Amino acid sequence: MYATERQAHITRHLAERGRVSVVGLADDLGVTTETIRRDLDALEQQGLLRRVHGGAVPARAGSITEPSIAERMTVNSDAKVAIARRALDVITDGYRGAIMFDAGSTVGSVAAGLGERVAATGARLDVVTHAVPVAQTLSLLPDVALTVLGGQVRGLTAAAVGPSTLSALAALRPDLAFVGTNGVSPEFGLSTPDPAEAAVKAAIVRSARRVVVVADQAKFGVESFVRFAGLDEIDILVTDAAPEEPLAAALADADVEVWLA
């Protein structure tokens, strides 16, 4: 396969998945990892992607770049549905408890699958969220008690942030929290581009007894502008592909369970 064909394959898969790995591309294309690294370097020089540890992400994916919630819903949608379905396995038969839902498209997929899970398990839940789209989804569930936290709603993510949101979170102790993230890094932990959003995510992580992070493989190795939690502050990472080293080792060292969709 010629370099131009390989690079077209790389850019196509990057557009579909949001991230590509050197090892995965080498396996897909039947070439060496050194060949893939040269292709990625060439594409980066053309401004078509940005190199990160172990692979590449779209060129626009800088540490303060943040797509809208509508844009996120169209990226890796099948993976997000699969991740959500696997994440909901944490709700077992007869489960009773309070659950916090963070903002984000993958967390939104978890919320969309909650009704079916409640029906299957007979769970009785009190749910809380600060995200408008998530609240709209959860409001349609007849057997779930919903509380919506107020605050200033960010247009980009449709999530409430700010002092009133943080004050409300400080008074809560949910049994479980589903949390989204823009990046999962072995050194930097979990991160997101916006400081106000990061403050709310950090408060959710602090408040919950058990933290389930839902993130597709495109988030691996990504470090966004603001860190909101260390790997040792979360309990479960639900994702669509096994993390590669050094992230895999860092998750193991932090005693994080990795659930594959």
Tell me what the structure shows:
The protein has 261 residues and is an alpha/beta fold. The protein contains ten helices and 15 strands. The chain has helices at residues 3-17, 22-29, 33-45, 69-73, 77-87, 105-121, 132-138, 163-170, 195-207, 247-253; strands at residues 20-21, 49-52, 55-58, 96-101, 124-129, 144-148, 152-154, 159-161, 176-180, 183-185, 189-192, 211-214, 226-229, 236-239, 257-260. The strands form four sheets. A seven-stranded parallel sheet has the order 6-5-4-9-12-14-15, sandwiched between helices. A three-stranded antiparallel sheet has the order 1-3-2. α10 links the parallel β14 and β15 (257-260). The longest helix is centred in the middle third of the chain and has 17 residues, at 105-121. The protein starts with a helix and ends with a strand.
Give the key terms.
261 residues; 3-stranded antiparallel sheet; 15 strands; 40% helix
- Average of pLDDT: 90
Q: How many E-type strands?
A: 15
Label the structural class.
alpha/beta
Largest sheet, spatial ordering of strands: 6-5-4-9-12-14-15
> Any idea what the radius of gyration is?
19 Å
Strand content: 15-25%
Q: What characterizes the major β-sheet?
A: 7 strands, parallel
Q: What percent of residues adopt helix (DSSP H or I)?
A: 25-40%
What overall form do the CA principal axes indicate?
A: elongated
SSE order, as H and E? HEHHEEHHEHEHEEEHEEEHEEEHE
From the N-terminal CA to the C-terminal CA, the straight-line distance is 32 Å
SS summary, helix count: 10
- Poorly predicted runs are none
